[in-house]
Design goal:
Length: 233
């Protein structure tokens, strides 16, 4: 955020394994000049490693694939704020897949943060979204931060009816939120939802063979690879 070296950040070296998941090997604190040293031999082999740096309530990930350099690394960290700042929803996509008396809905939010602070609000969450009552509150959430891997994220109710929140920091760069939920559905029946975010672009998507009609919908054509149809407002 300041462009200067940051002291006091916690830097942890983690081993990634299929059975144990993320296993911490060692950690250190950055000094007054921002430098840190972890003395561990991770050369050779095919095991990937991950550096996780915690600063101002937010964790930043830096992947170390096998054979990558392990010295002279620069880890970027940012001050955090409870205000969104430059973070905004650049793209919001809802994929509807009706089949066998129910409909699976996959909802994706792409946040772009072009600022120099991380948006982190543990009390209120960063993403708010509408979840139909018919889903009975069952939803799966995954988040992919800048330079990170998809990880599961907790979902909580807000004080507004059928509006839920995800508590995950939106760092500078692109952060992707993926939601999946299922509702009962009869073919041809109307479906209603709500969009509670301020989106720059919103798209409704249906698989090839499914038709969607509604007031204000613009058919943007089929996606070349999957032939899924995209609709815009």
């Amino acid at each position: 955020t300041t462009g200067k070296p940051q002291a006091g950040a916690t830097v942890a070296l983690n081993k990634l394994g299929q059975q144990l998941g993320i296993e911490m090997i060692d950690q250190a604190k950055s000094g007054a000049d921002g430098s840190f040293t972890i003395v561990q031999d991770i050369s050779g082999g095919q095991t990937p490693y991950l550096i996780r740096t915690a600063y101002d309530g937010v964790t930043y990930n830096h992947m170390l694939p096998p054979g990558s350099p392990t010295t002279g690394l620069t880890i970027e960290v940012y001050n955090s704020s409870k205000q969104p700042g430059a973070a905004k929803v650049s793209k919001h996509m809802l994929l509807f897949e009706p089949s066998g008396g129910q409909m699976e809905i996959n909802e994706t939010f792409l946040f772009q943060n072009g600022g120099q602070t991380a948006w982190n609000d543990p009390g209120n969450g960063t993403l708010h979204f509408f979840l139909p009552a018919a889903s009975e509150g069952k939803v799966k959430a995954e988040v992919t931060g800048p330079g990170s891997m998809p990880i599961g994220a907790p979902v909580a109710k807000t004080t507004k009816p059928d509006v839920f929140e995800v508590d995950y920091p939106v760092k500078p760069g692109e952060t992707r939120f993926d939601l999946t939920y299922i509702v009962p559905y009869t073919e041809g029946a109307p479906y209603e939802g709500k969009i509670v975010t301020k989106d720059e672009n919103t798209y409704l998507i249906v698989p090839n063979g499914v038709t969607m009609t509604g007031e204000g919908l613009n058919d943007l054509g089929a996606e070349p690879k999957t032939q899924a149809h995209l609709y815009g407002f």
